[in-house]
Amino acid sequence: MIQRICATALLTVKEGIRQRILYGALLFALGVCCFAVLLSGLFMRDLSKIILDFCLASVTLGGLLIPFFLAINLLSKDIEHKTIFTILSRPVSRAEYILGKYCGLLVLAALVMVLLTGATFAAVWLGRLLYGARFFASFSPGAVLVGVLGSWLGVALLTALVVLWCTLTTSSFLATLLTIATYLIGQSIDDVTRFLAADIPGVEISPVTRGVVTAARYVFPNLAAFDMKMQAAHGIVMAPLELLTLVGYGTTYTAAVLALAVLVFKRRDIV
Where do transmembrane segments lie in this chain (predicted)? Predict the structure, then answer.
């Protein structure tokens, strides 16, 4: 089983490379490195923060390209172009196909984010060389790596949801809309919950709205929890217990979504 999952994952990675996503990521990384250093020169008091803010945002953006574009494209193409029949005609079960595709997409996201993380460290090194090490006293490689790990976990969770949406729908357009909606809800649900809990005088919230937000909080993932760019930019490393809790939350939610995707895909009638 593991061998077949790995074979499907490798095939997915090759498909992603064929679409030149890694070449695009490499060019993007070089552009990020140069632009971040030039941009930071306009803010001499916050050199380190500006470089890290810009570069880490680029790392997250690069990772999000996988679920938003490549994942939907590859999964929908297999079904729409009937490639899925060729794959499933071999000794590959539907569960192995889903897990293999997911693992391959996860590897591609990791490769893209590793390239952009390398560009981040290169930008910091170049900034030190041009402006002096005193502007980078708060820089912490560990905080940057933890921030990137958090972003990757968020991308992994969103990719699992993309897999689920693609198994539920027959349209790549609808899968894209569901992914965008999931991302927006996941990024804002924490802020909305805090706003409702504040009970601001003069602002009335209907019980229905509160009920919908509460339901959304339990159904949709809190993607904002994986965003640690601000802490990384200030050299703050997340406490081990908090990091372990975050990893556990992301892993558990991802596993549940993948299990649901496998269950749905097993019952789906592919025509």
Answer: 21-44, 50-76, 97-125, 131-155, 162-185, 246-265
